[in-house]
Protein backbone atom coordinates (compact mmCIF):
# COMPACT_ATOMS: atom_id res chain seq x y z
CA UNK A 1 0.00 0.00 0.00
CA UNK A 2 1.17 3.51 -0.69
CA UNK A 3 -0.13 5.07 2.54
CA UNK A 4 2.56 5.63 5.16
CA UNK A 5 2.06 4.45 8.73
CA UNK A 6 1.38 7.18 11.30
CA UNK A 7 0.76 7.20 15.02
CA UNK A 8 -2.76 6.42 16.16
CA UNK A 9 -4.31 9.62 17.59
CA UNK A 10 -7.15 7.81 19.39
CA UNK A 11 -7.32 6.66 23.01
CA UNK A 12 -10.05 4.16 22.20
CA UNK A 13 -11.48 2.42 19.14
CA UNK A 14 -14.97 1.01 19.64
CA UNK A 15 -16.52 -1.31 17.04
CA UNK A 16 -20.25 -1.98 16.83
CA UNK A 17 -21.63 -5.48 16.24
CA UNK A 18 -24.99 -6.82 15.05
CA UNK A 19 -25.31 -9.14 18.07
CA UNK A 20 -23.49 -10.38 21.14
CA UNK A 21 -21.96 -13.32 19.25
CA UNK A 22 -20.32 -10.94 16.83
CA UNK A 23 -19.14 -8.69 19.66
CA UNK A 24 -17.38 -11.59 21.41
CA UNK A 25 -15.69 -12.56 18.15
CA UNK A 26 -14.68 -8.97 17.43
CA UNK A 27 -12.85 -8.78 20.75
CA UNK A 28 -10.63 -11.66 19.64
CA UNK A 29 -10.10 -10.18 16.17
CA UNK A 30 -9.12 -6.79 17.62
CA UNK A 31 -6.65 -8.43 20.00
CA UNK A 32 -5.15 -10.42 17.13
CA UNK A 33 -4.59 -7.19 15.23
CA UNK A 34 -2.78 -5.70 18.21
CA UNK A 35 -0.54 -8.76 18.36
CA UNK A 36 0.27 -8.41 14.66
CA UNK A 37 1.00 -4.70 15.04
CA UNK A 38 -1.86 -3.66 12.73
CA UNK A 39 -3.44 -1.74 15.64
CA UNK A 40 -1.42 -0.12 18.44
CA UNK A 41 -1.15 -1.82 21.84
CA UNK A 42 -1.61 1.51 23.64
CA UNK A 43 -5.11 2.05 22.26
CA UNK A 44 -8.07 0.61 24.15
CA UNK A 45 -10.14 -1.63 21.86
CA UNK A 46 -13.83 -2.27 22.59
CA UNK A 47 -16.62 -4.07 20.80
CA UNK A 48 -20.29 -3.61 21.61
CA UNK A 49 -23.67 -4.86 20.38
CA UNK A 50 -26.99 -3.07 20.63
CA UNK A 51 -28.47 -3.63 24.12
CA UNK A 52 -30.90 -6.46 24.90
CA UNK A 53 -30.71 -7.85 21.39
CA UNK A 54 -32.75 -4.90 20.08
CA UNK A 55 -31.83 -2.92 16.98
CA UNK A 56 -31.53 0.74 17.92
CA UNK A 57 -30.45 2.14 14.55
CA UNK A 58 -27.22 3.89 13.57
CA UNK A 59 -27.98 6.80 15.90
CA UNK A 60 -28.76 4.56 18.85
CA UNK A 61 -25.76 2.38 18.05
CA UNK A 62 -23.54 5.47 18.03
CA UNK A 63 -24.73 6.56 21.48
CA UNK A 64 -24.37 3.03 22.84
CA UNK A 65 -20.83 2.76 21.45
CA UNK A 66 -19.85 6.15 22.87
CA UNK A 67 -21.18 5.22 26.31
CA UNK A 68 -19.37 1.85 26.22
CA UNK A 69 -16.08 3.49 25.18
CA UNK A 70 -16.25 6.14 27.90
CA UNK A 71 -17.14 3.55 30.54
CA UNK A 72 -14.19 1.36 29.55
CA UNK A 73 -11.83 4.33 29.49
CA UNK A 74 -12.95 5.46 32.93
CA UNK A 75 -12.28 2.01 34.37
CA UNK A 76 -8.93 1.47 32.66
CA UNK A 77 -7.29 4.91 32.60
CA UNK A 78 -5.93 6.76 35.62
CA UNK A 79 -7.09 10.21 34.55
CA UNK A 80 -10.51 11.29 33.35
CA UNK A 81 -9.00 13.14 30.38
CA UNK A 82 -10.60 14.56 27.26
CA UNK A 83 -10.24 11.32 25.33
CA UNK A 84 -10.26 10.94 21.58
CA UNK A 85 -12.58 8.11 20.54
CA UNK A 86 -13.09 6.42 17.16
CA UNK A 87 -16.36 4.53 16.61
CA UNK A 88 -16.49 2.15 13.66
CA UNK A 89 -19.83 0.77 12.55
CA UNK A 90 -19.04 -2.70 11.24
CA UNK A 91 -21.94 -3.02 8.81
CA UNK A 92 -25.06 -3.87 10.79
CA UNK A 93 -26.97 -6.84 9.40
CA UNK A 94 -25.14 -6.53 6.04
CA UNK A 95 -28.38 -7.39 4.29
CA UNK A 96 -27.14 -6.28 0.88
CA UNK A 97 -23.88 -8.20 1.29
CA UNK A 98 -25.07 -11.48 2.83
CA UNK A 99 -21.76 -13.29 2.32
CA UNK A 100 -20.34 -10.93 4.98
CA UNK A 101 -23.39 -10.90 7.24
CA UNK A 102 -22.27 -13.46 9.85
CA UNK A 103 -18.86 -11.88 10.48
CA UNK A 104 -19.63 -8.32 9.37
CA UNK A 105 -18.48 -6.28 6.36
CA UNK A 106 -15.74 -4.65 8.43
CA UNK A 107 -13.90 -7.98 8.54
CA UNK A 108 -14.08 -8.96 4.86
CA UNK A 109 -10.64 -10.27 3.94
CA UNK A 110 -9.24 -8.25 1.04
CA UNK A 111 -6.56 -9.34 -1.42
CA UNK A 112 -4.08 -7.03 0.28
CA UNK A 113 -1.50 -8.77 2.49
CA UNK A 114 0.04 -7.28 5.62
CA UNK A 115 2.22 -8.53 8.48
CA UNK A 116 2.30 -12.27 9.15
CA UNK A 117 0.23 -13.06 6.08
CA UNK A 118 -2.65 -11.04 7.52
CA UNK A 119 -5.13 -10.18 4.78
CA UNK A 120 -6.19 -6.62 5.48
CA UNK A 121 -9.90 -6.02 6.01
CA UNK A 122 -11.84 -2.77 5.45
CA UNK A 123 -11.58 -2.01 9.19
CA UNK A 124 -7.77 -2.11 8.97
CA UNK A 125 -7.52 0.13 5.93
CA UNK A 126 -10.12 2.54 7.31
CA UNK A 127 -8.26 2.87 10.61
CA UNK A 128 -4.92 3.52 8.91
CA UNK A 129 -6.43 6.32 6.80
CA UNK A 130 -8.33 7.89 9.68
CA UNK A 131 -5.14 7.89 11.75
CA UNK A 132 -3.65 10.15 9.06
CA UNK A 133 -6.70 12.37 8.66
CA UNK A 134 -7.16 12.92 12.40
CA UNK A 135 -3.59 13.76 13.45
CA UNK A 136 -4.68 17.28 14.40
CA UNK A 137 -7.89 16.18 16.11
CA UNK A 138 -8.78 18.22 19.19
CA UNK A 139 -8.94 16.52 22.61
CA UNK A 140 -12.39 15.22 23.54
CA UNK A 141 -13.38 14.52 19.93
CA UNK A 142 -15.54 11.60 18.84
CA UNK A 143 -15.16 10.30 15.26
CA UNK A 144 -17.75 7.99 13.72
CA UNK A 145 -17.06 6.01 10.55
CA UNK A 146 -18.70 3.29 8.48
CA UNK A 147 -16.80 0.24 7.28
CA UNK A 148 -18.62 -0.15 3.97
CA UNK A 149 -16.18 2.19 2.20
CA UNK A 150 -12.55 2.15 1.12
CA UNK A 151 -10.95 5.59 1.39
CA UNK A 152 -8.06 6.51 -0.87
CA UNK A 153 -6.01 9.51 0.27
CA UNK A 154 -3.03 10.97 -1.59
CA UNK A 155 0.40 10.37 -0.06
CA UNK A 156 0.86 14.11 0.42
CA UNK A 157 -2.42 14.89 2.15
CA UNK A 158 -3.39 18.55 2.45
CA UNK A 159 -6.34 18.67 4.84
CA UNK A 160 -7.05 19.86 8.36
CA UNK A 161 -9.90 18.90 10.61
CA UNK A 162 -12.27 21.50 11.98
CA UNK A 163 -11.84 22.27 15.69
CA UNK A 164 -15.36 23.48 16.55
CA UNK A 165 -18.72 21.79 16.10
CA UNK A 166 -19.31 18.78 13.88
CA UNK A 167 -17.62 18.00 10.56
CA UNK A 168 -18.09 15.39 7.88
CA UNK A 169 -15.56 14.14 5.34
CA UNK A 170 -16.75 15.03 1.82
CA UNK A 171 -15.26 13.46 -1.31
CA UNK A 172 -15.80 14.62 -4.87
CA UNK A 173 -17.50 11.92 -6.93
CA UNK A 174 -19.59 11.62 -10.06
CA UNK A 175 -23.17 12.82 -9.73
CA UNK A 176 -24.38 9.23 -10.24
CA UNK A 177 -23.37 8.57 -6.61
CA UNK A 178 -25.77 11.25 -5.38
CA UNK A 179 -29.04 9.26 -5.48
CA UNK A 180 -27.42 6.51 -3.38
CA UNK A 181 -25.50 8.56 -0.78
CA UNK A 182 -25.58 11.70 1.29
CA UNK A 183 -24.41 14.86 -0.51
CA UNK A 184 -22.98 18.02 1.06
CA UNK A 185 -23.64 21.52 -0.23
CA UNK A 186 -21.30 24.19 1.13
CA UNK A 187 -21.18 27.96 0.91
CA UNK A 188 -18.36 27.73 -1.64
CA UNK A 189 -19.18 25.09 -4.27
CA UNK A 190 -16.59 22.34 -4.49
CA UNK A 191 -14.80 23.38 -1.32
CA UNK A 192 -15.01 22.55 2.35
CA UNK A 193 -16.60 24.86 4.87
CA UNK A 194 -19.98 25.43 6.52
CA UNK A 195 -22.68 23.06 5.27
CA UNK A 196 -25.74 24.83 3.90
CA UNK A 197 -27.60 21.68 2.80
CA UNK A 198 -27.15 17.99 3.53
CA UNK A 199 -29.13 15.94 1.02
CA UNK A 200 -29.99 12.27 1.58
CA UNK A 201 -30.22 10.06 -1.52
CA UNK A 202 -31.60 12.90 -3.62
CA UNK A 203 -32.47 12.42 -7.29
CA UNK A 204 -30.43 14.17 -9.98
CA UNK A 205 -33.15 16.83 -10.48
CA UNK A 206 -33.24 17.39 -6.72
CA UNK A 207 -29.45 17.69 -6.62
CA UNK A 208 -29.58 20.20 -9.46
CA UNK A 209 -32.29 22.28 -7.81
CA UNK A 210 -30.39 22.32 -4.51
CA UNK A 211 -27.22 23.59 -6.18
CA UNK A 212 -25.30 20.42 -5.32
CA UNK A 213 -23.92 19.80 -8.83
CA UNK A 214 -20.47 21.22 -9.43
CA UNK A 215 -19.48 22.62 -12.86
CA UNK A 216 -17.79 19.34 -13.85
CA UNK A 217 -20.82 17.24 -12.93
CA UNK A 218 -19.38 16.11 -9.61
CA UNK A 219 -20.99 16.21 -6.16
CA UNK A 220 -19.56 16.27 -2.63
CA UNK A 221 -20.45 12.80 -1.39
CA UNK A 222 -20.67 11.88 2.26
CA UNK A 223 -17.88 9.37 2.90
CA UNK A 224 -19.43 7.91 6.04
CA UNK A 225 -16.96 9.74 8.32
CA UNK A 226 -18.22 12.40 10.75
CA UNK A 227 -16.66 13.89 13.88
CA UNK A 228 -17.98 15.67 16.97
CA UNK A 229 -15.92 18.12 19.00
CA UNK A 230 -15.70 17.93 22.80
CA UNK A 231 -18.79 20.08 23.39
CA UNK A 232 -21.04 18.14 21.00
CA UNK A 233 -19.63 14.83 22.27
CA UNK A 234 -20.58 15.88 25.80
CA UNK A 235 -24.08 16.62 24.52
CA UNK A 236 -24.35 13.10 23.05
CA UNK A 237 -23.20 11.60 26.36
CA UNK A 238 -25.81 13.60 28.26
CA UNK A 239 -28.52 12.33 25.92
CA UNK A 240 -27.65 8.75 26.91
CA UNK A 241 -29.23 9.34 30.33
CA UNK A 242 -32.33 11.16 29.06
CA UNK A 243 -35.53 9.68 27.59
CA UNK A 244 -36.07 8.39 25.00
CA UNK A 245 -32.33 8.01 24.28
CA UNK A 246 -31.72 6.05 27.49
CA UNK A 247 -33.40 3.23 25.57
CA UNK A 248 -30.37 3.14 23.24
CA UNK A 249 -28.01 2.16 26.06
CA UNK A 250 -30.15 -0.47 27.77
CA UNK A 251 -31.55 1.73 30.55
CA UNK A 252 -35.14 1.80 29.23
CA UNK A 253 -37.33 0.40 26.49
CA UNK A 254 -35.25 0.18 23.28
CA UNK A 255 -35.45 3.30 21.12
CA UNK A 256 -34.42 3.36 17.48
CA UNK A 257 -33.12 6.43 15.66
CA UNK A 258 -30.57 7.18 12.95
CA UNK A 259 -27.26 9.00 12.82
CA UNK A 260 -27.96 10.89 9.61
CA UNK A 261 -31.69 11.56 9.45
CA UNK A 262 -31.94 12.36 13.17
CA UNK A 263 -28.58 13.66 14.47
CA UNK A 264 -26.86 15.14 11.42
CA UNK A 265 -29.95 16.85 10.01
CA UNK A 266 -30.53 18.60 13.33
CA UNK A 267 -27.19 20.40 13.02
CA UNK A 268 -26.29 23.88 11.94
CA UNK A 269 -29.63 24.99 10.54
CA UNK A 270 -29.40 22.83 7.39
CA UNK A 271 -33.18 22.36 7.73
CA UNK A 272 -36.03 24.37 9.18
CA UNK A 273 -37.47 22.84 12.32
CA UNK A 274 -40.76 22.01 10.61
CA UNK A 275 -38.91 20.18 7.82
CA UNK A 276 -36.82 18.26 10.32
CA UNK A 277 -39.73 17.14 12.47
CA UNK A 278 -41.72 15.99 9.44
CA UNK A 279 -39.04 13.59 8.19
CA UNK A 280 -39.82 9.84 8.33
CA UNK A 281 -38.69 8.35 11.64
CA UNK A 282 -37.25 4.96 12.55
CA UNK A 283 -38.88 4.11 15.89
CA UNK A 284 -42.16 2.20 16.02
CA UNK A 285 -43.57 4.72 18.52
CA UNK A 286 -44.27 8.02 16.69
CA UNK A 287 -44.70 9.96 19.95
CA UNK A 288 -41.28 8.87 21.25
CA UNK A 289 -39.69 9.59 17.87
CA UNK A 290 -41.19 13.10 17.89
CA UNK A 291 -40.00 13.71 21.47
CA UNK A 292 -36.53 12.52 20.53
CA UNK A 293 -36.38 14.84 17.55
CA UNK A 294 -37.55 17.80 19.62
CA UNK A 295 -34.76 17.14 22.11
CA UNK A 296 -32.12 16.70 19.40
CA UNK A 297 -33.16 19.96 17.74
CA UNK A 298 -33.00 21.87 21.02
CA UNK A 299 -29.50 20.52 21.76
CA UNK A 300 -27.89 20.52 18.31
CA UNK A 301 -29.53 23.17 16.12
CA UNK A 302 -26.93 25.82 16.94
CA UNK A 303 -23.95 23.47 16.60
CA UNK A 304 -21.68 24.44 13.66
CA UNK A 305 -21.68 21.87 10.86
CA UNK A 306 -18.87 21.84 8.32
CA UNK A 307 -17.50 19.68 5.53
CA UNK A 308 -13.81 18.73 5.35
CA UNK A 309 -12.28 17.87 1.98
CA UNK A 310 -9.13 15.98 1.06
CA UNK A 311 -8.16 17.06 -2.48
CA UNK A 312 -7.99 14.17 -5.00
CA UNK A 313 -9.33 11.69 -2.41
CA UNK A 314 -11.55 8.88 -3.71
CA UNK A 315 -13.74 6.22 -2.21
CA UNK A 316 -15.21 2.88 -3.18
CA UNK A 317 -18.48 1.74 -1.66
CA UNK A 318 -18.59 -1.86 -0.40
CA UNK A 319 -22.26 -2.02 0.51
CA UNK A 320 -23.24 -4.95 -1.72
CA UNK A 321 -21.78 -8.30 -2.71
CA UNK A 322 -21.32 -7.03 -6.27
CA UNK A 323 -19.48 -3.90 -5.08
CA UNK A 324 -17.16 -5.98 -2.88
CA UNK A 325 -16.28 -8.27 -5.80
CA UNK A 326 -15.76 -5.35 -8.15
CA UNK A 327 -13.37 -3.66 -5.69
CA UNK A 328 -11.25 -6.80 -5.32
CA UNK A 329 -11.18 -8.03 -8.91
CA UNK A 330 -10.46 -4.80 -10.81
CA UNK A 331 -7.63 -4.60 -13.35
CA UNK A 332 -4.35 -2.76 -13.15
CA UNK A 333 -6.00 0.46 -14.35
CA UNK A 334 -8.28 0.49 -11.32
CA UNK A 335 -6.95 3.21 -8.97
CA UNK A 336 -7.91 1.22 -5.87
CA UNK A 337 -6.04 -1.86 -7.10
CA UNK A 338 -2.88 0.24 -7.49
CA UNK A 339 -3.32 2.25 -4.30
CA UNK A 340 -3.94 -0.69 -1.97
CA UNK A 341 -1.66 -3.11 -3.78
CA UNK A 342 -4.41 -5.66 -4.45
CA UNK A 343 -3.15 -8.95 -5.90
CA UNK A 344 -4.84 -11.97 -7.53
CA UNK A 345 -3.24 -14.48 -5.14
CA UNK A 346 -3.38 -13.15 -1.59
CA UNK A 347 -1.91 -15.54 0.98
CA UNK A 348 -3.16 -18.61 -0.87
CA UNK A 349 -1.69 -21.94 -2.00
CA UNK A 350 -2.43 -23.56 -5.33
CA UNK A 351 -2.63 -22.47 -8.91
CA UNK A 352 -6.13 -22.70 -10.34
CA UNK A 353 -6.54 -21.85 -13.99
CA UNK A 354 -8.17 -18.56 -14.87
CA UNK A 355 -8.10 -14.88 -14.01
CA UNK A 356 -10.06 -14.71 -10.75
CA UNK A 357 -8.85 -13.72 -7.29
CA UNK A 358 -7.92 -16.05 -4.38
CA UNK A 359 -7.79 -14.85 -0.77
CA UNK A 360 -6.63 -17.02 2.14
CA UNK A 361 -7.39 -20.32 0.38
CA UNK A 362 -5.91 -23.71 -0.50
CA UNK A 363 -6.96 -24.59 -4.03
CA UNK A 364 -5.87 -27.80 -5.72
CA UNK A 365 -6.43 -27.62 -9.49
CA UNK A 366 -9.75 -26.01 -10.41
CA UNK A 367 -10.76 -23.21 -12.75
CA UNK A 368 -11.48 -19.62 -11.75
CA UNK A 369 -13.34 -17.34 -14.15
CA UNK A 370 -12.56 -13.66 -14.70
CA UNK A 371 -13.92 -11.46 -11.94
CA UNK A 372 -14.54 -14.44 -9.63
CA UNK A 373 -13.42 -14.48 -6.00
CA UNK A 374 -12.53 -17.42 -3.75
CA UNK A 375 -12.02 -16.64 -0.04
CA UNK A 376 -11.31 -18.87 2.98
CA UNK A 377 -11.78 -22.08 1.01
CA UNK A 378 -10.06 -25.45 0.87
CA UNK A 379 -11.03 -27.05 -2.45
CA UNK A 380 -9.65 -30.16 -4.11
CA UNK A 381 -10.71 -32.18 -7.11
CA UNK A 382 -12.72 -31.02 -10.07
CA UNK A 383 -14.19 -27.65 -9.24
CA UNK A 384 -14.83 -24.39 -11.06
CA UNK A 385 -16.20 -20.92 -10.46
CA UNK A 386 -17.67 -19.05 -13.40
CA UNK A 387 -17.00 -15.38 -14.19
CA UNK A 388 -18.15 -13.08 -11.40
CA UNK A 389 -18.82 -15.97 -8.98
CA UNK A 390 -18.08 -15.94 -5.24
CA UNK A 391 -16.97 -19.00 -3.23
CA UNK A 392 -16.65 -18.36 0.50
CA UNK A 393 -15.72 -20.57 3.44
CA UNK A 394 -16.06 -23.86 1.55
CA UNK A 395 -14.43 -26.88 3.14
CA UNK A 396 -15.78 -29.60 0.90
CA UNK A 397 -13.70 -32.61 -0.14
CA UNK A 398 -15.78 -33.20 -3.25
CA UNK A 399 -15.45 -33.83 -6.94
CA UNK A 400 -17.42 -32.07 -9.66
CA UNK A 401 -18.31 -28.92 -7.76
CA UNK A 402 -19.18 -26.26 -10.33
CA UNK A 403 -20.55 -22.80 -9.60
CA UNK A 404 -22.00 -20.80 -12.47
CA UNK A 405 -21.38 -17.17 -13.46
CA UNK A 406 -22.43 -14.53 -10.92
CA UNK A 407 -23.48 -17.14 -8.36
CA UNK A 408 -22.39 -16.97 -4.70
CA UNK A 409 -21.93 -20.15 -2.66
CA UNK A 410 -20.95 -19.96 1.00
CA UNK A 411 -20.64 -22.50 3.80
CA UNK A 412 -21.58 -21.21 7.27
CA UNK A 413 -21.42 -23.06 10.59
CA UNK A 414 -24.27 -23.10 13.08
CA UNK A 415 -23.38 -22.98 16.77
CA UNK A 416 -20.10 -24.58 17.80
CA UNK A 417 -18.75 -21.66 19.83
CA UNK A 418 -18.75 -20.99 23.57
CA UNK A 419 -22.18 -19.76 24.56
CA UNK A 420 -23.74 -20.79 21.26
CA UNK A 421 -26.50 -23.34 20.80
CA UNK A 422 -24.99 -26.78 21.58
CA UNK A 423 -27.80 -28.54 19.74
CA UNK A 424 -26.55 -27.44 16.31
CA UNK A 425 -22.85 -28.22 16.68
CA UNK A 426 -21.44 -29.87 13.55
CA UNK A 427 -24.22 -28.47 11.40
CA UNK A 428 -23.71 -26.04 8.57
CA UNK A 429 -25.73 -24.23 5.94
CA UNK A 430 -24.73 -23.94 2.30
CA UNK A 431 -25.94 -20.58 1.00
CA UNK A 432 -26.64 -20.16 -2.71
CA UNK A 433 -27.74 -16.82 -4.19
CA UNK A 434 -26.95 -14.49 -7.07
CA UNK A 435 -24.20 -11.89 -6.73
CA UNK A 436 -26.49 -9.32 -8.35
CA UNK A 437 -29.70 -10.42 -6.59
CA UNK A 438 -31.52 -7.47 -4.95
CA UNK A 439 -31.76 -8.78 -1.40
CA UNK A 440 -34.52 -6.44 -0.23
CA UNK A 441 -36.76 -6.60 -3.32
CA UNK A 442 -40.22 -8.08 -2.64
CA UNK A 443 -40.30 -11.46 -4.39
CA UNK A 444 -43.24 -10.65 -6.68
CA UNK A 445 -41.80 -7.33 -7.92
CA UNK A 446 -40.37 -7.02 -11.41
CA UNK A 447 -36.90 -6.27 -9.96
CA UNK A 448 -36.74 -9.35 -7.72
CA UNK A 449 -34.31 -12.10 -8.68
CA UNK A 450 -33.04 -15.33 -7.15
CA UNK A 451 -29.77 -16.60 -8.63
CA UNK A 452 -30.44 -14.14 -11.43
CA UNK A 453 -33.79 -15.73 -12.36
CA UNK A 454 -37.37 -14.86 -11.48
CA UNK A 455 -38.81 -16.18 -8.24
CA UNK A 456 -41.75 -17.61 -10.17
CA UNK A 457 -39.49 -19.83 -12.27
CA UNK A 458 -37.42 -21.00 -9.29
CA UNK A 459 -40.45 -21.87 -7.16
CA UNK A 460 -42.09 -23.69 -10.05
CA UNK A 461 -38.97 -25.79 -10.63
CA UNK A 462 -38.88 -26.74 -6.93
CA UNK A 463 -42.61 -27.42 -6.72
CA UNK A 464 -42.82 -24.82 -3.94
CA UNK A 465 -45.25 -22.05 -3.07
CA UNK A 466 -44.51 -18.78 -1.28
CA UNK A 467 -46.00 -20.28 1.89
CA UNK A 468 -43.33 -23.01 1.73
CA UNK A 469 -40.65 -20.31 1.77
CA UNK A 470 -41.93 -17.74 4.24
CA UNK A 471 -43.65 -18.40 7.58
CA UNK A 472 -47.08 -16.88 8.09
CA UNK A 473 -45.74 -14.16 10.41
CA UNK A 474 -43.67 -12.63 7.58
CA UNK A 475 -45.87 -10.04 5.89
CA UNK A 476 -46.31 -9.96 2.13
CA UNK A 477 -44.31 -6.73 1.94
CA UNK A 478 -41.36 -8.31 3.80
CA UNK A 479 -41.17 -11.45 1.69
CA UNK A 480 -37.79 -11.07 0.04
CA UNK A 481 -34.44 -12.86 -0.25
CA UNK A 482 -33.40 -11.76 3.24
CA UNK A 483 -36.38 -13.46 4.92
CA UNK A 484 -36.78 -16.46 2.55
CA UNK A 485 -36.11 -19.90 4.05
CA UNK A 486 -34.08 -21.28 1.15
CA UNK A 487 -30.91 -22.75 2.60
CA UNK A 488 -30.97 -26.28 4.10
CA UNK A 489 -29.03 -27.26 7.21
CA UNK A 490 -26.70 -30.23 6.69
CA UNK A 491 -24.75 -32.37 9.11
CA UNK A 492 -21.00 -32.84 8.80
CA UNK A 493 -19.39 -36.27 8.90
CA UNK A 494 -18.36 -37.41 12.38
CA UNK A 495 -15.12 -38.79 10.93
CA UNK A 496 -14.02 -35.65 9.08
CA UNK A 497 -15.61 -32.33 9.98
CA UNK A 498 -14.74 -30.84 6.60
CA UNK A 499 -16.82 -33.44 4.76
CA UNK A 500 -20.62 -33.35 4.66
CA UNK A 501 -22.48 -36.62 4.72
CA UNK A 502 -23.75 -35.74 1.27
CA UNK A 503 -22.95 -32.74 -0.87
CA UNK A 504 -26.25 -30.97 -1.46
CA UNK A 505 -26.94 -30.23 -5.09
CA UNK A 506 -26.95 -26.54 -5.90
CA UNK A 507 -30.68 -26.67 -6.48
CA UNK A 508 -31.27 -22.94 -6.69
CA UNK A 509 -28.53 -22.59 -9.30
CA UNK A 510 -29.91 -25.57 -11.24
CA UNK A 511 -33.44 -24.15 -11.16
CA UNK A 512 -32.21 -20.72 -12.23
CA UNK A 513 -30.67 -22.09 -15.43
CA UNK A 514 -33.73 -24.28 -16.03
CA UNK A 515 -31.78 -27.48 -15.46
CA UNK A 516 -33.48 -30.73 -14.47
CA UNK A 517 -34.62 -30.91 -10.85
CA UNK A 518 -35.75 -34.48 -9.96
CA UNK A 519 -39.07 -34.56 -8.11
CA UNK A 520 -37.63 -36.52 -5.18
CA UNK A 521 -34.76 -34.05 -4.81
CA UNK A 522 -37.14 -31.09 -4.80
CA UNK A 523 -39.32 -32.84 -2.22
CA UNK A 524 -36.33 -33.52 0.02
CA UNK A 525 -35.44 -29.83 -0.19
CA UNK A 526 -39.00 -28.77 0.68
CA UNK A 527 -39.06 -31.08 3.71
CA UNK A 528 -35.61 -30.09 4.98
CA UNK A 529 -34.95 -27.67 7.83
CA UNK A 530 -34.12 -24.47 5.97
CA UNK A 531 -32.82 -21.11 7.11
CA UNK A 532 -33.29 -17.59 5.81
CA UNK A 533 -30.39 -15.16 5.66
CA UNK A 534 -32.01 -13.25 8.51
CA UNK A 535 -32.28 -16.37 10.68
CA UNK A 536 -28.74 -17.38 9.84
CA UNK A 537 -27.40 -14.07 11.14
CA UNK A 538 -29.03 -14.86 14.50
CA UNK A 539 -28.00 -18.53 14.71
CA UNK A 540 -24.65 -18.81 12.92
CA UNK A 541 -21.35 -18.75 14.80
CA UNK A 542 -19.01 -15.86 13.96
CA UNK A 543 -16.39 -17.37 16.27
CA UNK A 544 -16.41 -20.62 14.29
CA UNK A 545 -16.12 -18.72 11.01
CA UNK A 546 -13.17 -16.63 12.23
CA UNK A 547 -11.56 -19.79 13.58
CA UNK A 548 -11.98 -21.45 10.18
CA UNK A 549 -10.24 -18.51 8.51
CA UNK A 550 -7.26 -18.98 10.82
CA UNK A 551 -7.19 -22.73 10.16
CA UNK A 552 -7.02 -22.04 6.43
CA UNK A 553 -4.21 -19.54 7.04
CA UNK A 554 -2.29 -22.18 9.02
CA UNK A 555 -2.70 -24.64 6.16
CA UNK A 556 -1.40 -22.02 3.72
CA UNK A 557 1.65 -21.43 5.93
CA UNK A 558 2.32 -25.15 6.12
CA UNK A 559 2.07 -25.66 2.36
CA UNK A 560 3.68 -22.33 1.47
CA UNK A 561 1.85 -19.31 0.05
CA UNK A 562 2.12 -18.64 -3.67
CA UNK A 563 3.87 -15.47 -4.85
CA UNK A 564 1.65 -12.39 -4.61
CA UNK A 565 2.12 -11.41 -8.21
CA UNK A 566 0.60 -8.10 -9.27
CA UNK A 567 -2.57 -7.68 -11.23
CA UNK A 568 -2.03 -7.44 -15.00
Q: Keywords, please?
A:
single chain; 568 residues; alpha/beta; five-stranded mixed beta barrel
Mean pLDDT: 90
Oligomer: single chain
Characterize the main sheet. Answer: 8 strands, mixed
Low-confidence stretches: 416-424
Compact description:
27% of the residues lie in helices and 21% in strands. With 568 residues, it is α/β, with parallel strands linked by helices. Strands 12-14-17-20-23-24-25-26 form an 8-stranded mixed sheet. Strands 6-9-7-8-10 form a 5-stranded mixed barrel.
Write the layout of secondary structure elements.
Elements: E1 12-17, H1 20-36, E2 44-49, H2 57-76, E3 85-89, H3 122-133, E4 142-146, E5 149-152, E6 166-174, E7 182-186, E8 193-200, H4 204-209, E9 218-228, H5 230-239, H6 259-263, H7 273-277, H8 286-300, E10 305-309, E11 314-317, H9 321-328, H10 335-340, E12 345-346, E13 353-354, E14 357-359, E15 362-363, E16 367-368, E17 373-375, E18 378-379, E19 383-385, E20 390-392, E21 395-396, E22 401-403, E23 407-414, E24 427-434, H11 455-462, H12 466-469, E25 487-491, H13 507-512, H14 519-527, E26 530-531, H15 533-539, H16 542-559
Parallel strand pairs: 1-2, 1-3, 3-4, 6-10, 12-14, 13-16, 14-17, 15-18, 16-19, 17-20, 18-21, 19-22, 20-23
Antiparallel strand pairs: 4-9, 5-11, 6-9, 7-8, 7-9, 8-10, 23-24, 24-25, 25-26
Amino acid sequence: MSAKAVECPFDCIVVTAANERQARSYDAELQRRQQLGVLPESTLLVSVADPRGARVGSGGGTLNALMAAVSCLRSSRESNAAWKILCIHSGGDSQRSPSQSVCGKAWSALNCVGPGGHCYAPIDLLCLRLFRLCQGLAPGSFVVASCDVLLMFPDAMDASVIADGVWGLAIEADQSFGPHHGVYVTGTPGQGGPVTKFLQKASIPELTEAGALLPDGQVLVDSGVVAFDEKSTTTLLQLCSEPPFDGCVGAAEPFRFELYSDIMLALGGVLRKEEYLSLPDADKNPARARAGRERLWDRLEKTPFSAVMVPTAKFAHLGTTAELLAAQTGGIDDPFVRHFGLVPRAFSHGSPQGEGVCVNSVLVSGDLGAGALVEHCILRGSWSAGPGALLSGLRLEQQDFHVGPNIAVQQVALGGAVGDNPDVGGTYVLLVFGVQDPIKAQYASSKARLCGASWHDILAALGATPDDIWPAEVSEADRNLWTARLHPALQLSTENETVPLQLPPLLLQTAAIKGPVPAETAESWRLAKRYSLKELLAEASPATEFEWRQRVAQEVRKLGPDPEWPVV
